[in-house]
């Protein structure tokens, strides 16, 4: 499932990981995270970088950072992955055509921070997608929005 959150004043800022955790009804600690194409967020966040769920959870409890651009890919906790490509958000036209695919095929799903004006959820498992549709303000089906031609 691909979703987009944009054009809503009901969020303090786009891509609040605290809010996303609540809307998805997950615990960030249950996953490991790969960050790429990062602009904004906490420093020093090397680019790209692996972050354990425990580290991410403690960071967003400390302060809910806003990312201007980023691709945040979720993996099962403890996964050892060898990346062949580095995903990117800034300048990536693939998000706006048809049904976008995850850039890292072996990830569980991707959260894309788009120019601090939208959050995209790519490849969400059905239950997580249903949770976001139920809980998050301003959420729409990205595939349907792409059909309307952006």
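Sequence proposed for the structure above (150 residues):
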């Amino acid at each position: 499932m691909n979703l987009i959150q944009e054009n809503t004043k009901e969020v303090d800022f786009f891509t609040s990981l605290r809010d996303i955790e609540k809307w998805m009804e997950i615990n960030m600690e249950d996953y490991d995270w790969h960050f790429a194409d990062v602009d904004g967020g906490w420093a020093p966040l090397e680019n790209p970088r692996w972050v354990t769920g425990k580290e991410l959870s403690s960071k967003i409890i400390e302060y809910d950072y806003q990312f201007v651009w980023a691709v945040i890919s979720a993996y099962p906790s403890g996964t050892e992955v060898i990346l062949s490509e580095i995903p990117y958000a800034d300048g990536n036209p693939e998000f706006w055509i048809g049904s976008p695919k995850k850039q890292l095929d072996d990830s569980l799903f991707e959260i894309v921070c788009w120019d601090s004006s939208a959050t995209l959820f790519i490849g969400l498992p059905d239950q997580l997608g249903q949770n976001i549709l139920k809980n998050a303000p301003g959420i729409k089906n990205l595939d349907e929005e792409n059909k309307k031609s952006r």
